[in-house]
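FAQ: What does a multi-protein file look like?

Like this. Sequence, then tokens, then the next protein.
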Amino acid sequence: MEGTSNKPKRNGPTKNNQCWICGELLDQPVKGRLRLTCSDACRQARSRFLKGKPSRKFNRQKKLVEKRRSKPFVERRFDRTFFEPVFELNAWRKVYECLACGQPYLVERMKNGNPARPYCSDKCEAKSKRHWDKFLDAYERAHQRGELDRRVEERFWYDKLSPLCPRCGKPFAPNTTLHGKPQRGRPRKYCSPACRKEAYEQRWKNRHGGVRGHRYALCVNCGDKFDRTDERGCRTKRFCNLACQHQFRDRAYRARKRMGLKAFIWGRSGHRMAALNSPKNKAKTTHP
């Protein structure tokens, strides 16, 4: 038949003409260099092996182990029911992972009825006990007040801690899933925007020695809340609009006329009487 070659098939340098990595039977080309591997993946795996580099499977397993050990303390599960060794060297030498820090530690002893210690050191055990005592106390107080979050309760039954608000001490659920996968957004530090705002105000007061001047204030005349920043960004405005400003100044002018004042002194030239007769103060003094 035309187009067929009568040349015998070539045998490669490997045993039984098989792939150097996976052992698959090779189809050697008629001309050219003999093949040692069946694919590019096996060729790269052979190159890594000859250079002493770890394989891709080993790297994937290493990443999973490092990810498991690098979990934060709050995202660790303190479940001792199925606490098993991660590796067994022999019958009396086994490797465990600490429940608190995730680092491996070796336990050397013969098999007996007592379970292995779930912590690598006294420091990790004391740290776990301290955090669990604080969390259980805050958990009970929030439960009695009726402020317990459902997600916090779900994490508790899953043997996981929940962070405590540094402002009020209330437990709250972090922005992660039950299995520790982070969600969108920055990690939460406070239980609510109110606690976050109070903490910010306290830091400002400690740093500057006084209360922070807020951007929004109440109008001196009508009492409505408005933005008191001017075009330069300074918090200098006292009135929400020109109408309130003119009404206040007219009352101050009439008060100065009644008192017989000729010189204008800011804050004392009828301003007290004008503030007392403002609509916001009159609304407070009127009785139904």
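And here is the next protein:
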Amino acid sequence: MYASRLCTLSLALLFASLPISAQVTGDNSLQVYRGAGPARKMSLVPPSAKVLFPGSIVFVDKRDVGVSLPVVDGGLLRNMQFVTVRAYSPEQPPKANSTDQEEDPQVSSARITAVVYGDKIYVVSELFCDENIAVVNALLRSMGASVDSPEKALQVAKFYLQIGYYSFKDPDTFIVSAFGDLPAKQLEFPGQDAAEMQRAIHPPSAIRDGNAYKVELVTQDRDAAFVVLHHWSIRILKSQITDAREEVLIPDRMHYRAGEAASNLGTLASAISTLRFQLSTIADGKTPDSKDLNFHGCSFNTSNGPGVTRSEYDFESNERSIRELDSALHSASQILERGKWTDAKGNVLGERALVLYSAEGSDEPVASILLRHDKTFFEVSSSCLRNLLEFEKVWFHSDSR
């Protein structure tokens, strides 16, 4: 997650202009299995998440998650269940003896974090970063949440981050209140400014802002090699989140200007929305079977949060690039699309696939676009599906490619 996060474009609108739109239908119902029990029909929120479950048959695995949410009646809160959702193929119904703890070999799907409440499954994942505010608000409305104090507003903000961006982890593991909260291993990473970190960190706060509440807090990425700090500003009005902005404080403060266009200075602008991609790092290397440098990688920070990485491999033969694509497809936890890679005019450039990978030790998947043209293989990845698809339009369908 990088830069300030302000979601302005729904995935449903974006998908209307992209190949994956064919998978988004008006029917948001799913057949939901739990263990060996019978299927139950439930509705999916948001409907755009249906692209992950094209067969409309899913299996949920219950998670043991604790939340503090005094804005909701305790009895109602106990009815909320935290799960991961994975897709089943219609031709391969779940085994009668499968359990929550058993990894079913018939499953070929990424696990997506979600909340089950009533007859609905609320997908809360950074993969659908644009939808998270609306989804959490719908969940709060369903439970009759009531925010009437700064303390309760702070709990809503923590709940929003816990289920939407930090994979259900306890807020104490990602919220930073003091310099001593930072992992010692990250602090040992060379080249960091401890004084700068101390100035950036402050305890969470919640104040009344007119007829609303404004929450400010700092979070950390515990899985990073070095210290990465984010500042969140979340506004809550009548038990609903009206705005959630994120800015990277450490290691680098991002700056974007309204109307900024693509340039040779490393900033690419989306033609679909206000989203900006700013070049962050560049790296070159080689694969084990190459004598020369044949790998070129770069990462981009984005103006709404989740970053994008782009890798290019230049091999010595078409056969080698085909093997690389096949290997990447084999490693994917779920293939959402596979077909021809075409430019904006419909000219065929090569092969294309949209896949999900499940990071080791994490419930949150990473989305990747795999592209192959003759001897060249590309992989573009992001934890946010919308950012990934927009970057493809900006980078690969423009002269800057």
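Q: Is there any per-entry metadata?
A: Some entries carry free-text notes. For the entry above: The first strand starts at residue 29 and ends at 33.
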